[in-house]
Structures are given as structure tokens and as C-alpha cells.
Specification:
Layout lengths: L12 H30 L7 H29 L2 H19 L5 H15 L2 H12 L5 H13 L1 H8 L4 H18 L7 H9 L8 H4 L1 H25 L2 H8 L13 H26 L2 H20 L6 H14 L3 H10 L6 H30 L1 H20 L17
Helix pairs in contact: 1-2, 1-4, 1-5, 1-6, 1-7, 1-8, 2-3, 2-4, 2-17, 3-4, 3-5, 3-8, 5-6, 5-16, 5-17, 6-13, 6-16, 11-14, 11-16, 11-17, 11-18, 13-14, 13-15, 14-15, 14-18, 16-17, 17-18
């Protein structure tokens, strides 16, 4: 069987399109956290109901992402990576533009579901394409660049949100539509074309669960990535509440409420650097697993520092969040690993569902944290959730195949 030619150029058009697509993806994901309060006030939600309304909208978006992750992953394996990529970009772009016109909570909720559904496919399909069109020596760099550039979308969201919440949604939609113009320069993965010609079974989501070895690898990918969203979903998203508990002060020594927008920005700047750094470590060690173990251990160490940061200045607190971002920059590596664990006929399905199930696990982590907080406080309960998630992640890495330099030109068979 003739091998498919792979690109050694780490800045080829597929990497650029995937990186810009993930940039818009992160922009939208983070934008809601930043504009949540002003947007809900603008559509008439009372101050006392803003928290509950915000949770409702987040859950609606997450529901869309969980469903979309499965649908786009299967479509990417059945119809092609490019067809799925085109539709995801189009759908979330139009949903974002429409979101800027929302007049009530129900309209907002439906548009969050649609946007989440569209967003769900962008990262997984992009990484699948990058993994399949690049050489095995350079694909690690490609996925790191996608994540490093993409994560910077959070920083843009912070600044664009200052224009107004409606304008910020419109800007995100326009960015997505502009990205569609670059899609014409991207060609379908040669590996997918070969599988299609071979008429192999493609996009069977349930095949990830019917084979014991395959199932273990799939679950291990999800557990290994969970600490990333523990940090984002609890330590960053609730940094205001945790900062109050820790007694964070300003430079004059007075209590200071943490600005969540700034917390998100500093954290994601660190994550952008961390994506490149973890990719470099993986490349130098010639091991995905070693890079993951180092990064997850680093996350654990920084969580200990975070939980003991009593009475520090807000500047130092933001610095801890920045360094935590560097540590959890292994997100790019774990998605690449998910792509490299499975054959071409289910690669898109696995790579697209893994990040969305990890994100979905945030709901379980926050519910567990919230339920324990009433009895033992928000800090100690966060310690328990974090310790559990990090220990399980370290264990999960040992159940993954070492995939650095692995030939991906194969199919899964029962």
C-alpha cells in the first residue's frame, strides 16, 4: 500500500487554518464568561437571578458541545474532515452574529446551544487534519502551534468585550466567516481518501466502547486532560470567590476583589506559551507520555501553591494563574495523543469527542465541588476535587500508548 505524503512544513495552510479556527473557538468560549453579567443585565435579568441565568446558559452551551462533539466527529470520519470543518465554522459564526441580537433569555439559550454545537467540532477536526497531513516528525509542532495560537483568542475576547457585549459577539461571527475564505486552500487528508477508497467502516462511535483496549485508551485520554478544565472551570472561573477566601489584597494591603476577566486573560496568555513549551518538551524527549507526566505534575505543584496563597497581592495571584496556564498548556499534547491513539477510520470521532467530554466533565467537577463546599468550605473542597482529578490523570497516562513518531496510516478493525 502506497504511503500518503506528509508535509514537513510546520506552518502549512492546514496548520494556519486549524490555528485560526481554534482561535475563534476559544474566543467564543471565553467571551461568554467575560460578558455574562453585562449581557444578562441588558436583556432584563434581575441582579438576583444573574448567577442562575449564567449557569443555565453555560449548561445549554455545554449540552450543545457534547452533542456536537459526537456529531461532528462521526461526520468527519464518514464525509470527510473538510466538510465537517466547513460546517462547524459556518454554524458557530452565524450563531455568534445572531447572539448579538438576542433580546431575552430563551433566545440567548438557544443560540448558546447552536454555537456550542458548532464550536464542538473545530478543535478535534483541526487536530485530526494536522496529524494526518504532517510528517510524524513534525506533527507535534503543528498541534502545539494550533493550540498556542488558538488559546490567544481568549486575550482578544477580553479586549473586544470592552466595545460592548453585542459588538463582541458580532466580531466573533465575522472572524469565523472570514476564516471560511481560507478553507478553499485546504485539501482533504490523503489518509482519509485512502480509507474511503478502501470502503472501510468509518465513524463508528460505539466501536470506542466495544473493544477493551480501545475503550481504556479512550477513557485514559479523557482522564488525562481533566486537570486542564479543573483549573479553568474552578480555579480561574471562580477566582473572585476563592480570592476572597484567600484574602487577596492590593498593593496598599487592602482587600481586593479579583477581576475574572483579567484572571482569564493572564491564565490564557500563560496557556498559549505553555502549548509551545509542552510541545517542545515532547519533541526533545521524543515522548508524549513523559511530557504529559511532567505537565500534570507541574499543575499539581502549582495547585498546592494556589491553595496556600493566603494574603498575597493580587499581582502575585495573577502571576500564579499565569504560571498555571503554562502548566496546563499540555492541552495541545493530550488532543494530539487522542488523535494518535486510533486508526484513520475513527480518528476524527475520537479526537473530536475527547476534548468535549473533558469540557463536559467540568460540570461534574463543579457540582461535586459545590456540594462539598457547604460543609467544608470552597477552598478545602476544591483541594479534594483537584487532588482526585490530578492523581487520576497521572494514572491514566500509563494506560496510553506512546505515540511520538507513530505511523498513523492504519485503520481500526474488530
Amino acid at each position: 500500500m502506497t504511503k500518503v505524503h506528509n508535509s514537513k512544513n510546520i506552518l502549512n495552510i492546514v496548520v494556519i487554518v486549524a490555528a485560526l479556527g481554534y482561535f475563534v473557538d476559544i474566543y467564543d468560549l471565553i467571551l461568554f464568561s467575560i460578558v455574562r453579567v453585562p449581557s444578562l443585565k441588558a436583556i432584563g435579568i434581575a441582579d438576583a437571578e444573574i448567577k442562575n441565568a449564567g449557569i443555565y446558559l453555560i449548561n445549554m452551551q455545554m449540552m450543545g458541545m457534547l452533542i456536537g462533539g459526537i456529531v461532528w466527529g462521526i461526520l468527519g470520519d464518514k464525509r470527510g474532515r473538510l466538510a465537517a470543518l466547513f460546517l462547524t465554522i459556518l454554524l458557530y459564526s452565524l450563531a455568534n452574529i445572531a447572539n448579538g441580537f438576542a433580546q431575552n433569555l430563551q433566545q440567548y439559550a438557544w443560540l448558546r446551544i447552536i454555537a456550542g454545537f458548532g464550536l464542538a467540532g473545530e478543535l478535534g477536526i483541526g487536530i485530526t487534519l494536522v496529524s494526518e497531513v504532517m510528517s510524524k516528525e513534525t506533527r507535534g509542532w503543528g498541534t502545539s502551534i494550533v493550540s498556542g495560537v488558538g488559546i490567544a483568542g481568549a486575550v482578544l475576547a477580553f479586549f473586544i468585550a470592552k466595545w460592548g457585549w453585542r459588538e463582541a459577539y458580532w466580531a466573533g461571527g465575522v472572524l469565523g466567516l472570514l476564516l471560511l475564505g481560507l478553507r478553499i486552500y485546504v485539501h482533504e487528508s490523503g489518509m482519509f481518501d485512502k480509507v474511503k477508497e478502501a470502503k472501510a467502516s468509518r465513524g463508528d462511535f460505539f466501536s470506542l466502547f466495544t473493544n477493551r483496549k480501545r475503550f481504556i485508551k479512550y477513557i485514559a485520554c479523557i482522564f488525562a486532560g481533566a486537570p486542564v478544565w479543573f483549573v479553568i472551570g474552578i480555579l480561574v472561573s471562580f477566582s473572585k470567590e476563592l480570592g476572597e477566601y484567600l484574602g487577596i489584597v492590593n498593593d496598599a494591603g487592602q482587600p481586593e476583589a479579583i477581576n475574572i476577566g483579567k484572571a482569564v486573560m493572564y491564565h490564557y496568555i500563560g496557556a498559549s506559551f505553555g502549548s509551545i513549551l509542552t510541545g517542545y518538551i515532547s519533541h526533545k524527549l521524543r515522548s508524549r507520555k513523559k511530557a504529559l507526566l511532567i505537565a500534570i505534575s507541574f499543575v499539581g505543584l502549582l495547585c498546592i501553591i494556589y491553595f496556600n496563597a493566603f494574603g498575597i497581592s493580587s499581582s502575585m495571584f495573577f502571576f500564579i494563574l499565569f504560571v498555571l496556564g503554562i502548566a496546563q498548556g499540555y492541552w495541545a499534547v493530550i488532543i494530539a495523543v487522542a488523535s494518535e491513539q486510533f486508526g484513520t477510520n475513527i480518528r476524527s470521532t475520537a479526537t473530536t469527542t475527547v476534548p468535549n467530554f473533558i469540557r463536559g466533565a467540568t460540570v461534574l467537577m463543579t457540582l461535586w465541588w459545590s456540594s462539598m463546599s457547604a460543609g467544608m468550605g470552597i477552598l478545602r473542597s476544591a483541594m479534594i476535587v483537584g487532588a482526585t482529578v490530578i492523581i487520576l490523570a497521572l494514572i491514566a497516562v500509563f494506560f496510553l500508548e506512546e505515540s511520538h513518531g507513530k505511523d498513523l496510516d492504519y485503520i481500526e478493525v474488530e
